[in-house]
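pinging the channel bc i need a second pair of eyes. not urgent but kinda urgent?? the chain im working w is below, pasted from the shared doc
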Amino acid sequence: MKLISGLALFLVCFAAHAWPVKPVRIVVAYPPGGGIDVMARQIADKLTPSWGQPVVVENRPGANTIVATDAVARSGTDGHTILMTTDATFSINPHLYAKLPYDAQRDFIPVTMLVLLHQFLVAHPSLPANTLPELIALAKSKPGSINYASYGSGSQPHLAGEMLKNKAGINLVHVPYKGISLAVPAVIAGEVQLTFAGIATSTPQLKAGRIKAIAIGGPQRSPLFPEVPTFTELGYPEVETHAWFGLFVPAGSPKEAVARIYRDTKKILDESDFRQKQLIDKGYQVVGNSPDEFVNYLKKDSESRGRAVRISGAKAE
């Protein structure tokens, strides 16, 4: 009897430390081909040999990340399904939607924030303003004559634009487009004068002179564009233009799974070649914080995005 009990205890302990015991899915809340999808596939390729199980990427775009998030929330608690998403899911959507099919805080365990991305405020070259003070002065002299593109109500560019309007006391016209890939081309084509866009998206267009950078979010200037000042140093720290990529698992997932996903992903982020060529050189700020640190960050990020949503008046059904 004691032998059986001892064997049972051994099997329980072995099972708890044997994760993963089957293929692992990384569910990406966006379509194939974008920056978050590329990063997910790079990480999955590196985790597969480390975990001894296939790590596959599944794209589940739709409804501003709600489709993927709901699918992962319902996927079970064995730790073999991971959600990879952005700040839209946990910092913005809870304030934007009156009702969600999941509870963003209760139904998930934050594992780690992979990277942080700060966005430029970019303009068409013909706009007669090259700095933020000049833009604000121009907007005040011609209220309602300057417009900016976003990729929908409640998107990061929309919230940043409305916060800038609020803090600078100016009137900019919001022009929402249907996708993230349409805003910068709209500025290049002269359909709108301004938008907010990430470094990776903006760099080729900036170097070609098709757009110009007015300012960038974050507490520090980008090492890739040290000449572009931050909103903070220009006196507008409330203008949040950032986005982030992070990993989450359903609440109730094994602690061993959470710890291993974090530990092994952090190793990948710390690989010098991957870190420099695939992340820093593309404008990403590498984070790799612990689950506890990520939880604390999410609380602050959600509060600041909640304020932005209220100021913008954005709502989604």
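so The domain at 22-116+243-312 is CATH 3.40.190.150 (D-Maltodextrin-Binding Protein; domain 2). and Residues 267 and 288 are 9 Å apart (CA to CA). — does that match what u expected or am i reading it wrong
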